[in-house]
């Protein structure tokens, strides 16, 4: 396995392999001189339906003989690529998980503010559904 995702060109744009970078939106690697030169050398653009992208764990799926280029992706870009590759039912569940993560990001800060304002720890547990140890840990920060 490699740590890089791969851009590659498909002969048949209707093949259900990888994700079109244009469908993922705003990938920094598409603006690098190396990727631009590679696209130019192959007479294509980032919007081409023949251009596809696979995350590192799936690069073995790049067809034998396909023109390919390893590209680094940020964690956020990689998440978007993986999300686009997931079948629809899984994609919806992934969206729910991401929404939960976004809600939970400020949890400890919120719990700390509630405790500082005088909300009793048992009430924080009741309101948030987190276990008492999490409330205790947030109180110590």
TrEMBL record:
InterPro entries linked to this entry: DUF6003
Domain of life according to the entry: Bacteria
The protein, known as: DUF6003 family protein
